[in-house]
Amino acid sequence: MAFKKIKNKRQKLIILFIICLFILPAAVSAENYKVIFNHLDGIGDDYGPGDYEYPQNHIFQNKGHLFDLKAMTIFEGENEYKIRFSFSNLTDPWGAEFGFSLPLIEMYIDHQSGGSNQIFHEGANVSFKENFNWNKFIKISGWWVRVFNPNSEKENLMNINELSLSDPDSNGNLSLSRKDNDLFLKIPKSEIDSLEKSRIVVMVGSFDPFGYDHFRSLSRTKSYWQVYSENEILDSKSPRLLDLLVPGGQSQKEVLSGQLPELPYLKVESELPVREPTLVDKLQPLNKISLSILFLYILFLIFVIYKFKYHK
């Protein structure tokens, strides 16, 4: 290596010092997130009100729980929020933009005064509690991410272009990525403001690019492309959800039973205990990671000086 060919020990130390100076600012600028919400959901409960079964097509069969949302975590950074959706098994049989094809995720957020108590579109066949008035609605598929507010122009559900797998109206301010069975959604605070003391409803359906409101329809007979139930269901009134984040102590089966069920919400409790500022707080924007790297850097220099037996 070229570095080994340098015989002057002073030059080696200077080069190493410069390299470390480039590494340290990168650590300083790294986003420091804190967890403000974490909710664990039941595992293997992607059966709607308890009796929904997957369509018969091979992409749904013998692949495990394809719509099972196990947990959701919200991280807060200085300029953005990062939301992690943890699934049991994400697959991508159709080669989607973001690496997953089957789940459709909808998240309603009540974080300001005012808002709407009505669902944006009726595709999910659900309703909200009287004291839940959403201000932001985030809709996620494997091809696009959309953000709406109560005054947004509704999609023309009969327009085939808006039901396709390419979406010119996707929100460019949000970023979505997949890692294994986790999805990571980043939302700038300029888009959503504060989530402190907010309320959220998170639901998962089966994505159908040609289904009403992108939800896969229901059937009382087994079908290649419809969600199946042996019980009495009405496709225009029965919930088209396969999974739902429910508060602790509540049953998803009970919540989703009946027609146009009323969904409970979860609270984001982001208040932190009051404490005295530490030295790390006072050294902002330096964070704990950058301080640790600085400490390792000093140890590294000591090692180099000892290794090369450098003397002035």
UniProtKB/TrEMBL annotation:
- Where is each Glucodextranase-like C-terminal domain found? 36-257
Matching entries from Gene3D superfamilies are given as:
2.60.40.1190
| Keyword Transmembrane belongs to the record | yes
| Record keywords, A-Z | Membrane, Transmembrane, Transmembrane helix
Q: Which domain of life is it from?
A: Bacteria
Write out the transmembrane intervals: 289-308
Return the protein name: Glucodextranase-like protein
Q: Which organism is it from?
A: Halanaerobium saccharolyticum
